[in-house]
Amino acid sequence: MSHTSLFTTLALAALPLGTFAVEPADSLLTGNDLEQVVVTGTRSPKLLMETPVLTQVISHADIEKADATNLKDLLQQVMPGVEFSFAQNQMVHLNFSGFGGQSVLILVDGERLAGETMDDVDFTRLSMDNVDHIEIVKGAASALYGSNANGGVINIITKQAAKKLNACLDARRAKHNEQRYGLALQGGSSRWSNAFNMTHTTQDNYDVHSDDGAVARTVTTIFGDHTWNFADKALWQPSDRLKLTGRAGYFFRQVKRSEESPERYRDFSAGGKALWTLSDNDVLEGSYSFDQYDKSTWLKSQKIDTRNYSNVQNSVRLLYNHTFGDNVLTAGADYLYDYLSNNKLDAVHRQQSADVFAQLDWKLNRRWEFVGALRYDYFSDHHIQRLTPKLSVRHTPVDHLNVRFGYGMGFRAPTLKEKYYDFDMIGIWTITGNPLLKPEVSHNFNLSVEYVKGNYGFVVAGYCNRVTNKITSGNPYYASATETMPRLPYVNIDRLYVAGFEATARARWSCGVDARLSYAFVDEQAGHKDGQKLASPYLPARKHTLTAHADWTHRFSTLLDGMVALDGRFLSGIDNQEFKNYYKVEEGTITVHYPAYTLWKLSAQMSIGKHLKLIFAVDNLLNYRPKYYYLNSPVVDGTNMMAGCKIRL
């Protein structure tokens, strides 16, 4: 397939399925996955097997099988080396193969997200109801994506609307009065289409109980929430060479930590994109994105909503691709205006950043391909500048076998929050910014071998990362003898080493069975040159994780399709240095042991005709409960029964 055809494929975009169809009954699963077009690794469309940058794709079919509500639910079910835990106020924290949330760039259709909760994006706003597929690239990608991409990129690609008018309703109930309701409306014609999605979730607060003998503070109540998520995406194609896309979204979440003053989180987003095929060899893309993430407290008795945090981002991007022969030249530029307001700041803080980058994708022959990229970034606050290079090589010594090697420099400038924040963390301590923070710089080396033939696929990938001036939270301290609450500062630590490897085997058979087994080993080491250790509230990466999946799909008749799936994951034990009591840091630190555990999920889906799908699941099949509910323990309290349905009109 030529590069021009790939650009056309990207411009037209894959349409979502019009029915609940599973794979045809007992048919051999063909190479559809290999024909998947990906864009994240090179910022130009490439076939999955031909991209020089190893890219993992979570397909629409995988998302449907998982029946995940948001990105957190999906990643922890399908990816090894990924674990989510609580920050001090029960905000969700991501460990992505040794990198925290601020070092992993999460995009939606290539656009950044504003706001964060304890150094991570708000994962509850990343609903899976309108997602076509997800592309994941591990390792430093700052040469193409700039700051925050030194640990990898997760790019969520949303669906394009079908041309035929249709609607879909879905509902699910589970333990602790967990409820999920969704509505999708889409339609259009040959030149335009529109897709609207709405999701509402709710869950009650519930108590968990630890055994006697806990060595550190434990969690006793898990706070539920309720959310509303609206998204609309419109496409207009005035000609074969021009495609215009517009989008708008609204997200709301309320957490009942206090009955009289619940916390509220909101996000407003909008944007537009133009994709212009200048010629058979030239494509120009321009986009604008607006995103505003707010936090507030609802004073119920006074009926006053008090906003205490707002992060606003306005970004503009230009991207140009020129093909010549089998080669692609990519050039682009970005501008970002970042605004942070907090009621504890002495002033509103703003930052402007700009960058230019170029990349050459040179295909020497069918066996060798080289990609080199260079990027320049500038940040107005403290006038930070950085050049970041990247090199990727793909070698195909024999058919069906790809060997990939890559080097990338990572770069992360300190955020406005990390420099200037001054925030009371629910009485635990005051999070204090540090204007003197230095940017993180990382060096990533990776090597992978991938073999795919027929119904079988195998991937082994190894990597090594060295990070200097890692930005993280330091040890709390009292600024003066009169202060009653300690301060938790942001600091640079001298070094972070993250090395590991992953291995995945996948098989598909003509009888309708699909199986996948993945293992990840991660070795994470952080500290200062003088040996000083930090008592981190976040759990380091567990050394060994394993995920397994098997499903069987079958068409029983023209009106009845079924699927049964089993998913499991195993995580090894780990020790972490933590404070005995975050509310009384003067009591000192202690080593907390988090034991190994395994979680399994059994699910079944039944499609009746074209209009009805029934979904049943038993999560935490083995009824696992942690002995002690520390902040970083898995938040499970036994088996969870789920039941739901989807109705397509």
Automatic annotation (TrEMBL):
Lineage: Bacteria, Pseudomonadati, Bacteroidota, Bacteroidia, Bacteroidales
Xref: InterPro entries: Beta-barrel_TonB, Beta-barrel_TonB_sf, Plug_dom, Plug_dom_sf, TonB-dep_rcpt-like
GO biological process, one term: siderophore transmembrane transport
Subcellular location: Cell outer membrane
SUPFAM superfamilies: Porins
An annotated GO cellular component: cell outer membrane
Name the UniProt record assigns to this protein: TonB-dependent receptor
Domain TonB-dependent receptor-like beta-barrel: 182-621
Taxonomic superkingdom: Bacteria
Domain TonB-dependent receptor plug: 49-153
Membrane topology: Multi-pass membrane protein
Pfam families named in the record: Plug, TonB_dep_Rec_b-barrel
UniProt-recorded Gene Ontology molecular function terms: siderophore uptake transmembrane transporter activity
Source organism of the structure: Hallella mizrahii
Signal peptide (UniProt feature, chain positions): 1-21
Main subcellular location: membrane
Recorded family membership: Belongs to the TonB-dependent receptor family.
UniProt keywords, alphabetically: Cell outer membrane, Membrane, Receptor, Signal, TonB box, Transmembrane, Transmembrane beta strand, Transport
